[in-house]
Amino acid sequence: MQLKIDTRSASGAILGFIVALALGLQPAAAASRLDDCKAQTATDWTVCGNAAFDEGRYDDAMAAYNQALRLDPRAWDTLFNRGTLAMGLGDNAAAIRDFDQALAIASDHCPEICFNRATAHYRMLRFPEAIADYSAVLTLLPENDQALFQRGICYSLVGNNDAALRDFAEVTRLKPGYVAAYSQRATLYTRMGNDDAALREDEKALAVEPTYADAYYDRAGIAWRRGNFQDAIRDYTTAIGFYAEAANGPSERVSRWYGQGAHAQPMRLGVSVRLIDLYLADAYYWRSRAWRSLGDTAKADIDLADALRVDPNVGARIGDEP
């Protein structure tokens, strides 16, 4: 989790579109040092909270923000900080309450407040509310690619495929290297029964990022459904290699794949090793099914064992076809 609070600002406001990742914050192994904070004013307490946050002392950060807001309940930036911290700790309802208050006080800061509130709504599966907030951001900043991407995700999850496709297309117009947007368009085209269009989007994704495992996974699924099991095995094998490297190695590759929309988990989008492992298990599972369709039960059994080793629940959560 890399959520940075700008401690250089006297007010402690978070600058830019800063969001908490859906998997939550991981506290550092540090004892409370809140007693060391010689704060007297609300601003002092906010600065102490920001410093505690940067050091991974999230209980201290929350306590400091609470004290700051007792002294100045209308400090919108502290409400924003506390809401973002609450979201990172998994309390999305509390985050939304803080964002609501912050927006009522400082409506001119809608872009950052609305963006984070949209993320909290998304995490609570309130997709229409998330769409409304992302749209509010885009009214003010129509070329914000993150808001466009996340709104596209939400549109896809409420079944508005055409609106989702438009948002993802606008994302790639603004930022041609936004690889996840091509992949999301491919997923939508597959859902709509247009595998040829999906393949074209996967090829665009691979032209941008040749190691993008999701594109190989999606392409393999199309080959599998068409009965081209050798082609499916080839692409699943490539996807497995890249997923395994990403899960076991540094996060740079994962950041390249998923960095633009990292705070959400749409369709096959995610940033954690845990999620990468789930994708790895899926690829093993479907390669196993492909081997079995070709009559190679030995290789099928090996892949199934690997799938279950990575995720013992793979069989229960996966569908009838990729």
How would you characterize this protein structure?
By secondary structure, the protein is mainly alpha-helical. It folds into three domains: 1-105, Tetratricopeptide repeat domain (Serine Threonine Protein Phosphatase 5, Tetratricopeptide repeat, Alpha Horseshoe); 113-176, Alpha Horseshoe (Serine Threonine Protein Phosphatase 5, Tetratricopeptide repeat); 190-322, Serine Threonine Protein Phosphatase 5, Tetratricopeptide repeat, CATH 1.25.40.10. The protein contains 16 helices and no strands. The protein has helices at 42-54, 58-71, 76-88, 92-105, 110-123, 127-140, 145-157, 161-174, 179-191, 195-208, 213-225, 229-248, 252-258, 273-293, 297-310, 314-317. Helix 4 packs antiparallel against helix 5 and helix 8 runs antiparallel to helix 9. It is elongated. The chain starts with 41 loop residues before the first helix and ends in a 5-residue tail after the last helix.
